[in-house]
Amino acid sequence: MYHGGLCFITDRTACKHSCEDMTHQVLETGVRWVQYREKEKSRQEIYEEAVCLRRLTDEYKAVLIVNDHTDIALGVNADGVHLGQDDLPLKEARKIMGKQKIIGISTHSLEQAIEAERDGADYIGLGPVFHTTTKNAGTPKGTDMLREVKNQIHIPVVAIGGINLENIRLVLDTGVDAVAVASAILRGDIQDNARRFLEIIHSHNL
Q1: Backbone dihedral region of 167: left (phi > 0), alpha (psi from -120 to 50 degrees) or beta?
Q2: Are residues 184 and 163 in contact, defined by beta-carbon separation less than 8 angstroms?
């Protein structure tokens, strides 16, 4: 889905590279789905960075999803927006984004996943699957919940949270449609990490 089963999430706290540089390196490996996540900068800075990432992802024919900010996603002509549970309600975001844009939403329970599908989400992010240091995301949900949610809803399920090269096969075995990864790609050799993730994901036919 959305150009393969790996969504790269930007995280400038996980490495010394700029957002543009880390994204460029990842796109070079064949990843074609980028989620721009930035929690600390001003909205003006986020907009400017998103413009830059839109230009870069266009060059590689990759999908760009902007985290949290529906207006910025629309302003830079991103492919979609990814909402948190405390962001603009999904139905309102759809009115702004229109039917052609992708809207994903973070969910942390079966109930939230069912509600997201009912409200018109194109996909859900479910997690954290494992403990993660990237952000304070709550109690790990484990792979059993992934399997349960995947069996209960009909829109794509993207696993997120603490996924690395050691545990990704356990995640893929649940039948999820994709995985979202930040720090496990960015810590160390970015391109080598991304390529190894892609190899495993492609071996599962995603």
Answers
A1: alpha
A2: yes
**1 domain-assigned:** no
- Give per-residue pLDDT as tens, 145-159: 999 999 999 999 999
Beta strands at 80-83 and 63-67: parallel, antiparallel or unpaired: parallel
Question: Residues 165, 169, 170, CA angle at the centre, nearest 5°?
Answer: 115
Q: What is the dihedral of CA 9, 11, 16, 21, to 10 degrees?
A: 40
Mean pLDDT of the chain: 95
Q: 135 pLDDT exceeds 70?
A: no
Structural contact between residues 104 and 65, judged by C-beta atoms closer than 8 angstroms: yes
Give the residue among 154, 153, 155, 174 at the shortest CA–CA distance from 163: 174
Indicate the number of domains in the chain: 1
Identify the CATH number of the domain in which residue 157 sits. Answer: 3.20.20.70
Domain assignment present for residue 148? The answer is: yes
State the catalytic residue, choosing from 39, 41, 135, 169: 135
Helix then strand then coil, % of the chain, to nearest 5: 40, 15, 40
Which structural domain range is residue 62 located in?
A: 6-203
User: Is 135 annotated in the active site?
Assistant: yes
Which residue out of 32, 37, 141, 150 is catalytically annotated?
Answer: 37
**Residue 99 annotated in active site:** no
> Any catalytic annotation for residue 91?
no
Over 70: is that where the pLDDT of 63 sits?
Answer: yes
User: Of 54, 101, 106, 183, which one is the catalytic site residue?
Assistant: 106
CA–CA gap between residue 90 and residue 202 (Å, rounded): 31
